[in-house]
Amino acid sequence: MSGIMEDIKNPWALPDPTDSVDVVQTHISTVFIGRDFVYKIKKPLNFGFLDFSTLEKRRYYCEREVELNRRFSSDLYMGVVPIFLSSRGYAMTLQEGEPVEYAVRMRRINEELLMDRVFEKGLLTDKNIRDVAKFLAGFHAGAEGGAIIADFGTAKKFKINTDENFEQVRPFIGKTISGELFRTLHEWTEDFYLSNGSLFERRIAEGRVRDCHGDLHMQHICLSEPVQAFDCIEFNDRFRYCDTLADIAFLLMDMEYRGAGAQATALWNYYRKDAKEEEGVESLLIFYKVYRAFVRGKVIGFIVNDNGIAPDIRDKAARTAARYFDLAYSFVREVSI
């Protein structure tokens, strides 16, 4: 993969005119940013819950990414582009032989309209928050449901997610999370299942388990006209098939992480009204916020073991992951005091 990554940095290797190419690494993708378009290549990884280990799987999940994200932004995801090994090197422009890799091609959005950027500049307005709430409530209301999807909302099925999280974070004890905090969050989660099984069943009966976004944080929302979301979970249906409350909980958690607690409260109040949420869901919302903070800490923590990423970035990732785990504990304390 290293040869591809070096060659695609060259503007001539991209199918759209650009003077320069910026590169952004995530734990599962390498993103090449040109002037007007963005190209995302999936890393050949297998985390168990995610498997990009073969070319065919990476092609398939590139296609799924385009298909699923068009639910939120019809003109942002352009399609899947093959990459070839040409006489000049790896490129999307020179077709020779069979494809050796695939990339998702996206129209470049205005980064200054991303929800986190707008908040950081102190420009997040009440209208923005109302618009996001209305957008998400509308999407959730129209998202696919049904018996197969609803089954993922049971406590037994959702516990697969939390069990997996704790197993995958366990090797990072002492790196991104302390042993004591790990045990506290694990025990609290187990106790919640034992005491609140009826809450999960009630949500299923109300038709609240849908094919959602699955990774709904501030960096994945664009405050354009109309509001758009992007970068949903494509690699595992289990993470998208969830209670709509679990979906909005990710965004509320991320807002609190960034210091936007007051705005998160306002968003929840607007969303609850637009989505016609009933009273008595707050404890389950907190459960999902704990889950989402733990997921974020886990995912960012994976960077710590990625030797292909610079040491300073890995150190920063460890600190960021620790902050998310601390946030998860703050939610636990909120209901324990």
Describe the protein in words.
The chain has helices at residues 2-8, 55-69, 115-120, 126-142, 147-150, 155-169, 179-195, 197-205, 237-240, 244-257, 261-274, 282-301, 311-336, and strands at 22-25, 29-33, 37-42, 77-86, 89-91, 101-107, 209-211, 221-222, 228-229, 241-243. α6 (155-169) runs parallel beside α12, α10 (244-257) crosses α12 (282-301) and α12 (282-301) packs antiparallel against α13. A hairpin with a 5-residue loop joins β8 (221-222) and β9. The protein is of the alpha+beta class. It has two domains: 2-108, no CATH class; 115-336, Aminoglycoside 3'-phosphotransferase, Chain: A, domain 2 (Alpha-Beta Complex). The N and C termini lie far apart (50 Å). The longest helix has 26 residues, at 311-336. Helix content is 50%, strand content 13%. The strands form three sheets. A six-stranded antiparallel sheet has the order 1-2-3-6-4-5, sandwiched between helices.
Strand order of the largest sheet: 1-2-3-6-4-5
Describe the sheet with the most strands: 6 strands, antiparallel
CATH class of the largest domain, named Alpha Beta
Q: What is the total domain count?
A: 2
CATH architecture of the largest domain: Alpha-Beta Complex
What distance lies between the first and last C-alpha atoms, to the nearest angstrom?
50 Å
